[in-house]
Amino acid sequence: MPTPPLTWNDSLSVGLADIDEQHRQLIAQVNHLTEAMNQGRGRAEIEKTLEFLSQYAVKHFAAEERYFDQYRCPAAQANRLAHARFVTQFQALRDRAQKEGPTASLVLEVKRDLADWLVNHIQTIDCQLRSYVPSAGKR
Fold first, then answer.
1. How many Cβ atoms sit within 10 Å of the Cβ of residue 87?
2. Beta carbons within 10 angstroms of residue 110's beta carbon
3. For labelling alongside 18, which of 48, 122, 125, 138 has CA 20 to 30 A away?
4. Dist CA 104 CA 71 (whole Å)
């Protein structure tokens, strides 16, 4: 049964255009992997996805953490810890991919963990920033 794509909506907005755009790009990457999996091409795409994430997460997390500090959001420490846990988990998946190759179980795990973590993290931690951004919520 095909996995449906993740959908961006305003409930995922943190009130900062650049961070929201980065989140859209991350969702698009998850959806690209999901589509590839639905078409039986997940193994071919997993290495590209892992490479994208290894580079993108560093930039995105750094930018996001600066905003949390800039706007003095009380969730800043929880955000940093969540990012650190993700990096550790992601590195374990990447190490596994290098050892085992792009197995079907790895592809499914990356997609599942990435999709679940991304949406949960945005909704529970990142969106707390919205209350501290002066222009957020005044659209």
1. 15
2. 25
3. 48
4. 42
Return the structure tokens found at 34: 């999901």
CB 24 within 8 A of CB 8: yes
Alpha-carbon distance of 26 to 34, in angstroms, equals 12
Cα→Cα distances 5→109, 114, 116, 117, Å = 16, 13, 12, 15
Q: Count of alpha carbons within 13 Å of 33, Cβ hemisphere only?
A: 27
| Length of the chain (residues) | 139
User: pLDDT per residue over 74-122, tens digit each?
Assistant: 999 999 999 999 999 888 888 888 888 878 788 788 778 888 888 899 9
Residue 136 has pLDDT above 70, yes or no: no
